[in-house]
Known about the structure:
A: mainly beta, 2 helices, 11% helix, B: mainly beta, Ferric Hydroxamate Uptake Protein, Chain A, domain 1, 3 domains, 4 helices, 49 strands
Amino acid sequence: MKNIKSILFISSLILSVAGCEKDADVELPEVEPKLVIASFISPQDTLVKVWVRQTKPIFKPSNVNTSDAVIDATVEISDGTTSATLTFDPSGSHNGYYQIATSVFPIVENKTYSLRVSTPDGKVATAISLVPAFSPVNLTGDVNIITIDSSATYYERESHYTVSWDDVAGSGNNYRVIALKAYYDPFYNDTMYTTIVDAYINDEGKEGQRLEYKTTSWESSYSSGGGGTGFIVGYNYYVYLVNDDYYRYNTSVRISGFSSQDPFSEPTLVYSNVTGGLGAFCAFNELGRVIKR
Amino acid sequence: MALSFNITAQNKFTISGYVTEKGSRETLPGVAIYSAKHNAGTTSNNYGFYSITLPADSIELTFSFVGFQPRTEKIVLKENIKLNIDISNNIELTEVEISAAQQRRISEETQMSMIEIPVQQVKDIPALLGEKDVLKVIQLMPGVQKGSEGSSGLYVRGGGPDQNLIILDDATVYNAYHLFGFFSLFNGDALKSIELTKGGFPARYGGRLSSVLEMQMKDGDKEKIHGEAGIGIISSRFTLEGPIFKKKLKNKASFLVSARRTYIDALVYPFLPKDGKAGYYFYDMNAKLNYTLSDKDRFFVSGYFGKDKFYARFEDYDFSDEIFLKWGNATSTVRWNHLFNDKLFSNASLIFCNYKLGIGYKEEYKDDNSFFKLDYSSGIRDYGFKYDFDFLPNANHFIKFGVMSTYHRFTPNAVVVKSSFEFENEKAIQAIYALESGLYIEDDYKVTKKLKVNGGVRLSHFNVKGTNYLNPEPRIAMRYMLKKDLSFKASYAMMNQYLHLLTGTGISLPTDLWVPTTKKVKPQQSQQVAMGFAKDWQEKNLTFSLEGYYKKSERILGYKEGASFLLIDDLGTTEEVKWENMVTAGQGWSYGAEFLIQKKVGKFSGWIGYTLSWTQLQFDSLNFGKKYYARYDRRHDFSIVAIYKINDHITLSGTWVYGTGNAITLPVAEYEAIPHNPIENNTPGFNEYNYFISDYGDKNSFRMAAYHRMDIGIQFHKKLKRCERTFELSFYNLYNRQNPFFYFVGTSDSNYNQRVLKQISLFPIIPSVSWTYKF
């Protein structure tokens, strides 16, 4: 399929090169930089983190750097009764974030939190998000390995993974399922992980029932990341109950990265629940994790 | 001599028969038959049959048709009469003589929102690369827009190219385009009539929301063999028609064959290097046979077959591979006209259609004869049956009723893998069967001298995999004569569409998927109200119409964001995504006004059309549920077409079109979006990087620059010894306007750090020449 897509892409390029290129003679929209927020809160995290950046206008000259954090913003989080101001930590990931410890400002399930980001030059961005709640879900994660071929120097096998849990009350629940394979890497002399799966599923059609996520991977001794059965240390399974904002933002960001290579699809609009800006303020709740060694 | 009769106890008799063209005996649809004395008239149907019931009297019956010499017959009516008439296609007639006749007047008819294009005009209007195209001429009419530069897609009253029912001799044509949408399938040489209905649909039409384009092929000259051959820059074509066994069958049978093919690829092929060949070609063929058994029975067999193929081959001493993209339609119809009596005419048709799109890849290793073949195809195959009746009980009613049923076989995505390694063989063909049927009745009823109403209902039904949909569709149209040549018209029509065309919104490719309504994907529906005025200026041979319309569509389909026509694995699962999960349903509003002034005959002919329209869409899962303008929402659409016959030898023609730019989604800013990584510990290879995102603002919130273009053409006709030769020189885009085909973000030539919006235009000024020989 990829071959065919690239061939079609090339032929469409040929068609376009055949035409004449020039500067477009049309009035262009001129915009100002906007605030871009990213924040994902959950009851399990030790820190509330908020990343604040800016958009860079395309057609207007601007010295905004899209990977720089905005360091002079005032970031406040509130649960309706109490609020707190976050402080900027430049050593945080992605060039720094605003943070506050959850021991100071706890994140509780079933509560709606609001975020307000403002900058000295007058930009204001706000967003709200509801932390989803659940009752015990009896999470299990397992792998069934079927060996296809094995000899002293070579093996080939199929691993069938199953993660299951009870659907949380209510309809329209979205979950993020992550399965990792832990293996020992002699080069780093440490346990490393490869991702088996990172997917979203919802409970449509199966509300209130036991949900199951299955996936299969095929491995051989040539596979990277833990080749050789002797090296595998174990498996980690995680399931998160994510709210609607989380689901729409993270999946649209992922799809936009994928489809930008495909010239035959409409540009995907990335989801945002931020008023006065872009990005998203999301919430999730870890249903549980199964660590198998 | 007038005989006096008691008006209330008059006997009425029927005059019926066929109207044909003198010489070729080609039947003529839409001929106006009129008795001035009784202020009663009718028109000949699609097969040239007419029937008019009048009181016993001495009558003058006039037969008239655009471009033909009118003919008046004096009849003393005292019994039912069979009267077959032939009229002359007389081009030498002066304008004064033509206008003296009672032509079919647009103000007279109940049908509104309908455009008729005389086939001859299609041949006279200059075209891209000299390739005369029926659909491109239709795009020049008000209410019809094209999607993008060079494309033949029809966007009628805010509906997309999937909402048009295109019929050739009763058979549905699913993908009406050659060369990635630049040219249509229809060879003007083989056609007899072209009619586009945009609204006020009579009950006999159904199955698509926005328009019906009905084309009839010529039957073939029953008198003598003649033909036409032509060569242009893109393709060469050939048409031959004539009688079959003229003496034995006494001029009752004839045939028509018309074919076209591109030839550049054949010329270039031998010069390409052996190791790398690529090319593109298309061909199509129309064929028809007809036989008139008796006055009561006629038989027709017609067919169309066409194909497009783009290929690229690479060959080495030990390896060869080929990729191709091909698509094609094949249709055939068998029809039987039967006259039950002089008031009841019927036509039964058996129809077969097949459309298939294929994308393939093949590789071969010569040393061990191993090979690998991947074929992806998408198609639809129909077996259909239609039985239509025309019943004219008296001069005030023209009743049509009938039934139709089509058995569809859809294969929206079929993948076949064949390999010399057995384990790679795979066949995944998902065939869906469906039955689409319709039952209708309509009556064109002359209520009073001034008021005529066409009322009808269509009952449409669709069955697929145990799910049934049954929808009654009321249709009503009326015409009220305000003055002798001026009428007011209004109509309402409800349409249902059970077949859907999924078109990618990127670059236009023939990769459109035809899919059926299913339990999950419901039928699309539209309701349209239209109102307007129609005026004839008989002395000047002009017709004028002004119409406003409002159309609301429900459950229209679009692709979900991020979906593409090719099967892609859903991110995160290993299941193949079924097409039902790639589409989403929404609603549409389109409304506007259309103005047309048209002159169909004369030394100077043509039209001026203007459309002011709005088209908005709303899908819950697109643009975050907000209403947005459709890509093809073009506020103003203006076209002028002029054809001037300077003398018998020279014809000059020109067109000028103007349209507001398309609505597109344009990035205005960029940013980096941080996705969430919930795992805190050591996970190399986990998504740590950011996504570089464009901020587009709302969907389709940016307008491309306006499109305008002028084409001119000049034809030189010369009578040679055995044939007539026409040489045409034409210019497409005469003043070389660089109309944007698409935009992209590039860097400024003067400052590399500054981004600018750039455009790609497709066609600069393009001259072309063509030769046609008529013998």
